[in-house]
Amino acid sequence: MPPPDRLASLLIPFRPSGSAQLLPQGYRLIQSPEGDLATEGETAAEGLNRLLRACEERPRSPERWGQVLARSTWHLGVKDRQDRLVGFLRATSDLALNANLWDLLSDPADPGRDQVLTALVRCALGRLRRELAGCSVSLSATPEALEILHGAGFVVDPGGIRAMGLTLTTPGMDQKESPRSGGGI
User: Fold this and answer.
1) DSSP bridge partners of 137
2) Which of 53, 68, 143, 162 has the maximal Cβ count within 10 Å?
3) CA dist., res. 13 & res. 87, Å (int)
4) pTM of the entire structure?
5) Using one digit for the tens of pLDDT, what is the confidence trace for 45-62?
6) CA gyration radius for the chain?
7) Range with the lowest mean pLDDT among 4-13, 78-87, 111-120?
8) Pick from 133, 142, 138: which is nearest to 158 by CA?
C-alpha cells in the first residue's frame, strides 16, 4: 500500500479550489442570486456606479441597473475589507450556444486589483463550465485585463473579428432584383 501522502496526490477534489482563495485577505466574492451587492452605506446601484466612475465608465440610472441585473443570467461582485464593492462581472446567455461576459470592472485604486480581476474571471469561467458547458464565450475588456484573460485561457481576437452575412434571394430571382440590392421588389 502506498504511503498516505501518495494517496492524497491521487484524490480528485470534489470541487476545484475556489476563486475566493485568489483574493486578498479580508476580501470576499459575492455570487448572485445568493449575494447582495448593497452595503450599509450604499445601494447596489450606487456601489456599481461608484465602481463605473472609478473605471472611467459612464454611470447608469438605478432603474437601468435593475433591468441589467434582472436580465443577467448571474453576476459576481467582490467586496474589500471595508465592505466596499471593488469588482464586478455579469453574464448573459441564451442558455444554449452563447454566453457573454459584461462589465468586467475592478477599482483601479484598489491594491488588489489584479487579484480581483483574476478571481472574477476564474469564478465566471468555472460557473460557465458547470452551468453552460458548450457555450461559446465572448467578452470585452479593458487593456489591463488582457493579460489576466490570456492567463485564464482566452484567445484574444483569434484570427481577427470577422462579420458574416447571408443574402437571401428567392429562387429564380436575379441578384440585381434582390430586395437587399435595392432593385426589384
Assistant:
1) 99
2) 68
3) 28
4) 0.73
5) 999 999 999 999 999 999
6) 22
7) 4-13
8) 138
